Amino acid sequence: MIRSTHLPLLITLATFVLAYALCASAYPAMLSWRVIANLLTDNAFLGIAAVGMTFVILSGGIDLSIGSVIAFTGVFLAVILRDTSIHPLVAFALVLTLTTGFGAAMGATIHYLEMPPFIVTLAGMFLARGAAYVLSTESVPITHEFYDTLQGLYWKVDGARFRLIGGLMVLTFLVGIITAHRTRFGQNVYALGGGEQAAKLMGVPVARTTIGIYAVSGGLAGLSGIVFSLYTSAGYSLATVGVELDAIAAVVIGGTLLTGGYGFVAGTFFGILIMGLIQTYIVFDGTLSSWWTKIVIGGLLFAFILLQKGLTWAAQKRAAQARRRTATGSAALS
Amino acid sequence: MSSPPVGPRPSILKRIMPQLLILGVALALNVAVFPEFFQIDFRNGRLFGNLIDVLNRGAPVALLCIGMTLVIATKGIDLSVGAVMAIAGAVAAAMVVEGHGWGTAVLAALAAGGLCGLWNGFLVAVLRIQPIVATLVLMVAGRGVAQLVTEGKILTFDNPGLIHLGAGTVAGVPTPILIWLALAALVTFGVRKTALGMLIEAIGINERSSRLAGINSRVLLICVYLVSGLCAALAGVIVAADIKGADANNAGLWLELDAILAVVIGGNSLLGGRFSIIASLIGALIIQSVNSVILLSGLPPEFNLVIKALLILGILVIQSPRIGNFIYLLRASGPQPQPEPPHSTQEEAAR
Q1: How far is B315 from chain A (nearest CA, A)?
Q2: Could you read off the pLDDT of A79-98 as tens digits, one per residue?
Q3: Which spans in chain B are helix H?
Q4: Cβ neighbours of B261 in A, within 8 Å
Q5: Which pLDDT tens digit goes with each residue over A250-291?
Q6: Which member of A8, A79, A283, B117 lies 3.0 to 4.6 Å from B226 by CB, making a disulfide possible if both were Cys?
Q7: A124 touches chain B (CB under 8 A)
Q8: A302 close to B (CB below 8 A)
Q9: Chain B contact set for A245 (CB, 8 A)
Q10: pLDDT by residue (tens digit) across B67-80?
Q11: Which option is the CATH number for A7-327: 1.10.8, 3.40.50, 1.10.3470, 1.10.287?
């Protein structure tokens, strides 16, 4: 029998397959490798950031700062590669340290000052966006031969190019899945999402886990920023506004409960693909306007929230029934 | 949250003192960078001055935070107000462009905002979806709907009646100031001169027990989100009227965050319960005064967000429960009148 915790994931998967089948029946050209390769490449930065968001939401928190951190990373890389002669790999390491530290600082503020994650990461969002503005308000192009090398890497299948950044996203998801389900940190995240008080009583190191979660989210937002700079070959402080909302939407469509404690990193992967598919369909159609993307994603979001609500309600009802049955059973025994 | 204290309410002045102090500091900073800050002129039948500007430019956030205060008092949050602003602005502009009068346009915009509020209220109160998620749906989809109304263009209009709402004056005072002051007075009296305010606080403190006490929390919750939607619609109309056009992409962008911030700076707990609309409005003015300092000081506008973020962090740290405890302990461990040492009474008894 299918366990009810797996049901949201399966429904996400079914939605993706159904959506793809519908798209393919309307436009047979969408069945090509090229479309799949582009789906991975175009959504790479969003996917990497969404992995971090999945961990944050699994723990019952929220991180509004990732869009700004992605923009900051891009501008930081562009400025540092323009003004200094250090190697991009060193710059990558530098910016990843910076964003991970930024996330950890937000996590520490949330835990030690007992402030809601919503407000702390909101301040973080302003701070990171502001730092990007201070570095540069203009779009700074990146022209480094190492970037050209990285952008030139691809694996060719039937004329379709699976690029490096798409591969990086898939790799991030694999590492995320293993971390969530096979490590102590992952178990702690789930425990924290189930209830902080209970987690504390179970012996989960709440401080270390909270700081770790936001550090992971910050670090992955940094990685996403690197991927975005590879994707656009530029750093711009006004870029990726509202990406945090797309990431939250992908996580919810992926079947993760926004109250925390239930969900799968793999679900987020299909959430990203579904959102990418909607965009691809609109491009293929050509007559639909771009704002339909937002409306359809909003509708999907609503449908999945309703689904989660129904499942929680059913689970509660079943639990209540079971309790009643045991109660009458014990009464009959005595 | 703790149970509401019994007895008369502490005086309103004492409640809003910290906010007034912060506002005073912000205004003093304004004077420091621009000595003529408080100077107000009357020219061409209109008041001019930086102080008037702060009140005028702060109108959208002030309007939003009236509704947001009520929503947050019920332990909720409304993320969709920015998108609702865009929808309302788009509806008003579309009506005027089609040749309707400005009154009809404003009514249609209010109806659209009210509908959005009802939708949020329905999700929260009837379907029992947590507010941050429920309003996220409209936040994501709302801008798409607004673009659907304007067909992706920036709808411009030149209807004098509608423009008057955003850029005109009544007896020399810019209309937006009058609108937000009037609405604030209306809502404050509405909730404070009746039991509504107390009922809203009861829902925020403990919804279950408030329902057991006989409060129709479902209807009240829907009403609160409805008010928030209407406030957002009014703010959207003002913003559209100010620029003589409806921009579905940028109208009210990130204003939901400013509104939430104003409520938090106003000392209202995000966990619901006791609220003060006046304190939230002062919070909105603080945000606008800070914007004005950065503008007047001639700092590059790039620093605007960084300064704002640091300021928010500062205010939040001061208000955080942990720091509050720390200050309380500091005070308690300081010098204070010692109780009578017991041995003296023993001595007296011995004597």
Answers
A1: 11
A2: 999 998 889 999 999 999 99
A3: 12-33, 50-57, 59-73, 81-97, 102-121, 131-150, 160-167, 175-192, 196-205, 207-212, 217-243, 255-265, 277-296, 303-319, 321-333, 342-350
A4: 122
A5: 998 898 887 888 889 999 999 999 989 988 888 888 777 778
A6: B117
A7: yes
A8: yes
A9: 136, 139-140
A10: 999 999 998 999 89
A11: 1.10.3470
